[in-house]
Amino acid sequence: MAFHIDKLEKRWIYMVAGIVLMAWGIQIYYAAQGWHPPSNVEVIDSAQLHLETGVGGDEFSEQNIGVKRDEDGMLVVTMVAARYGFYPQEIVLPQGEPFKMRIASFDVLHGIYIPLTNLNLMLVPGYVSEVTTTVNNLGDYPMLCHDFCGMGHAYMFGNVHIVPADEFKL
């Protein structure tokens, strides 16, 4: 028994099939090129994140988090996200100076978003999330968790103070 497919329906079938094939082609092309989203793949042990294991402690232990300069003079913000807060909760940065943010999750999936900037990271337990950026406008910016992390999610926030470069002190 033969059945009839209307011309308009055939066009839609061909169009959908073409879009699907084009999407597959793009995925295969990028996979073959070895391209992937930029990321800093650095594995850590989230359960040991806060512990001191050597002289001076590890990067994410309590005494080492905050704003510091590295050996090249670049500002590095080291933070920990844990239910239900960012540690340290407040950071001060100079206007117009690039900084690197390194942040790790202690427990579950979190996110960090600073409105009116380009800082938006997903924080996966067991990995260090890293981004380098600059904030050019003075003021206070909230740090918000944008991935639901539990019952206290709405209370997980912090603050970034951007001050004039000549007023910034470490």
Please describe what this structure looks like.
The chain has 170 residues and is α+β, with helices and mostly antiparallel strands. The protein has 2 domains: 1-36; 46-167, Immunoglobulin-like. The chain has 1 helix and 10 strands, in the order αββββββββββ. The protein has one helix at 7-33; strands at 66-69, 75-82, 85-87, 90-94, 99-105, 110-114, 119-123, 128-133, 139-144, 157-163. Strands 1, 2, 3, 5 and 8 form a 5-stranded mixed β-sheet that branches. β2 and β3 form a beta hairpin. The longest helix is centred in the first third of the chain and has 27 residues, at 7-33. 16% of the residues are buried. The mean pLDDT is 88.
Tell me briefly what this model is.
This protein is of the alpha+beta class and 170 residues long.
Q: What descriptors fit this protein?
A:
170 residues; alpha+beta; Immunoglobulin-like; 2 domains; 3-stranded mixed sheet; 1 helix; 16% helix; elongated; metal-binding; copper; membrane
Q: Based on Cα principal axes, name the global outline.
A: elongated
User: What oligomeric assembly is this protein in?
Assistant: single chain
| N-to-C SSE string, H for helix and E for strand | HEEEEEEEEEE
The CATH architecture of the largest domain is Sandwich
Distance between the termini: 82 Å
**What name does the CATH topology of the largest domain carry?**
Immunoglobulin-like
Q: Over the alpha carbons, how many angstroms does the gyration radius reach?
A: 23 Å
Give the percentage of residues in beta strands. 25-35%
Share in helix: 10-25%
Largest sheet data: 5 strands, mixed
Give the number of domains: 2
Could you tell me the number of beta strands?
10
- Secondary structure class reads alpha+beta
The helix tally amounts to 1
